[in-house]
Design brief:
The complex is a heterodimer of chains A (250) and B (309). Chain A has six helices and 13 strands. By secondary structure, chain A is of the alpha/beta class. In chain A, α2 packs across α5 and α3 packs across α4. In chain B, 25% of the residues lie in helices and 30% in strands. The chains are: A alpha/beta (250), B alpha/beta (309). The interface between A and B is large, with 80 and 89 residues.
């Protein structure tokens, strides 16, 4: 079984991001970049499927600028076998990304696509579902458990009230939630080995996919600040304030 | 033109997130249709017809929609989409699951999790875990939108009697199958709909100590939530999680107990009307967003609070 893992280069999750002073966008000058945490979980899941004998090959793919090669190397160090960079300097929206991924899926014919449920920059939570739609594949989003059973995948999903389990025909798209697994750290020998693994670069123009943006960002502003509150001295004072000042309990 | 809202329900009851979404749709359009797709869901359609602002309810009652499998629901919505200028769903796990699929089938870029409507093509939404608010404009002729329900007041129920149109639309894609659902049983209100939420964090130390929150929750009619740290430590199930990747809540009163206040958690609760923080670490960032902070050991403060409310 061949697994495709689409990943994304994003701002490291520890960085507190701020809008630019002129509100024209997000200030990304000199911030640390990393593989999107949900994508890392997806890579880990693919590697575990390979280690358990369910999968034979793992291909990591990303759509982005030349420097996205760094995150593909991370995926290779974690255990992916080879990588593909679809190179573009455009900021591509989820719909455009899913069209690029469709072209890659048609070329590589994976049995399973595992990817993160959302990227922590745009927080869109769309690309996996869109790719599944364009391929007419089933989807299992927000996965907390994934089992391969013959020609099907049985997936437990994190839903609002608890957990839902569905069975989907392969090929399919599965998107990872936080509790699918805990990704390993790449060992130094594996980081060194990853440098030798194949990484193909395809120009996005060569795929003949429409990447024109449909959404324009007019401005990016800071969220409304909450006014600082007060520190109360005791439970008595807290209860008194909640009753008589905030009037939220009776 | 007309906007179509996709109802969130469990085949028995309409979820309030639908009413929040109708309110958002009313900022785009005055003619609002609501699709109730499910199995044995007639009572939900009747309930929906009483929501203020709804002009028509489309009821599609068929077995293959019972569990809201994305493949089936997305095909249904696509088939119904031609008459609508905008399609909106609440940003629940259901809405987040099927709506991008609808958008791709229609070749439309989805606008996810909007928190404000500026005009019929311009919206606000949080990005980077709520650290920034983006104002975005869509050039698609048809808008596909998911709605952050806490950002819009629910349209009232009970006053209206919109027409109910029953449709026969069979869309069994046949590529996915529901197996089971394990939903937490609780007499408490749902997290996202509760007027009061009390959440525990890593400071609770273990799952058993969440009983300390239950006593207060019972007295206040509150829902119980948790930080990601508490969920990851296995204190409570995942559906308790409040935060960027969990549930977004905005109750009248939010009580954070033993929660340090990571940005990830704040993104899920900072729109609450009144925030109380109880933490023994006076430097915890949660105090910067709290209206009332109490620096105390939760193991003595909680029983005392329970006895005094």
């Amino acid at each position: 079984m061949k697994i495709l893992v689409p990943i994304k280069r994003v701002v490291d999750y520890n960085v507190k991001v701020r809008p630019k002073a002129d509100e024209s966008g997000v200030d990304l000058n000199n911030v640390k970049m990393a593989i999107n945490p949900f994508c890392e979980i997806a890579v880990e899941e693919a590697v575990r499927l390979k280690e358990s004998g369910s999968a034979t090959e793992i291909i990591a793919v990303t759509v982005g600028a030349e420097n996205s090669q760094e995150q593909l190397r991370t995926a290779l160090a974690l255990g992916a076998d080879r990588a593909i960079l679809v190179e573009t300097d455009l900021e591509v929206e989820p719909l455009g990304i899913s069209k690029v991924l469709k072209a890659i899926v048609e070329k590589e014919s994976p049995n399973l696509i595992v990817m993160g449920k959302q990227a922590i920059d745009g927080d869109n939570n769309q690309t996996g579902q869109m790719l599944a739609a364009l391929m007419n594949y089933p989807q299992a989003t927000f996965a907390s458990e994934l089992k391969i059973e013959g020609e099907k995948a049985v997936v437990t999903r994190e839903v609002d009230g608890g957990l839902q389990t569905i069975s989907i025909n392969l090929p399919a798209v599965v998107t990872s939630d936080l509790r699918l697994n805990e990704p390993r750290y790449a060992s130094l020998p594996n980081i060194m080995k990853a440098k030798q693994k194949p990484l193909d670069i395809i120009k996005s123009d060569d795929l003949g996919v429409d990447l024109n943006p449909r959404i324009s960002t007019l401005k990016v502003s800071p969220p409304p600040e909450r006014e600082a509150g007060i520190i109360v001295e005791s439970v008595d004072q807290l209860v008194e304030k909640l009753k008589n000042e905030a009037k939220v309990i009776s | 033109m007309t906007a179509l809202v996709i109802a969130e329900h469990d085949n028995n009851e309409l979820k309030v997130s639908t009413q929040n979404t109708v309110s958002a749709a009313l900022k785009l359009d005055s003619d609002i249709h609501v699709l109730v797709a499910g199995s044995d869901c007639n009572s939900v359609a009747e309930e929906t017809a009483t929501c203020e602002g709804v002009t028509k309810v489309l009821c599609v009652d068929s077995k293959e929609y019972e569990n809201f499998l994305a493949e089936n629901i997305a095909n249904l919505i696509k088939n119904l989409s031609s008459d609508y200028s905008a399609i909106l769903a609440p940003a629940t796990t259901n809405g987040k699951n099927y709506m991008p699929r609808v958008a791709a089938l229609l070749d439309v870029a989805q606008i996810s999790d909007i928190s404000a409507v500026e005009s019929e093509d311009t919206f606000q939404r949080a990005i980077y875990a709520g650290n920034c608010i983006a104002t975005v404009q869509s050039s698609d002729s048809k808008k596909v939108i998911t709605v952050r329900t806490t950002a819009f007041d629910a349209t009232p129920k009970g006053s209206n009697s919109a027409e109910i149109l029953k449709l026969e639309e069979v869309n069994d894609a046949g590529i996915s199958e529901f197996i089971k659902e394990e939903l937490a049983k609780s007499d408490r209100p749902e997290l996202t709909a509760a007027e009061v939420v009390i959440s525990g964090g890593r400071g609770m130390q273990n799952g058993d100590n969440f009983t300390l929150l239950e006593g207060i929750a019972d007295k206040l009619g509150a829902a119980i939530g948790a930080s990601r740290a508490a969920v990851d430590s296995g204190f409570v199930p995942n559906d308790y999680q409040v935060g960027q990747t969990g549930k977004i809540v905005a109750p009248n009163l939010y009580i954070a107990v033993g929660i340090s206040g990571a940005i990830q958690h704040l993104a899920g609760m900072k729109d609450s009307k009144v925030i109380v923080a109880i933490n023994k670490d006076e430097d915890a960032p949660i105090f910067q967003v709290a209206d009332y902070g109490l620096v105390a050991d939760l193991f003595t403060a909680l029983p005392e609070m329970e006895s005094k409310i």
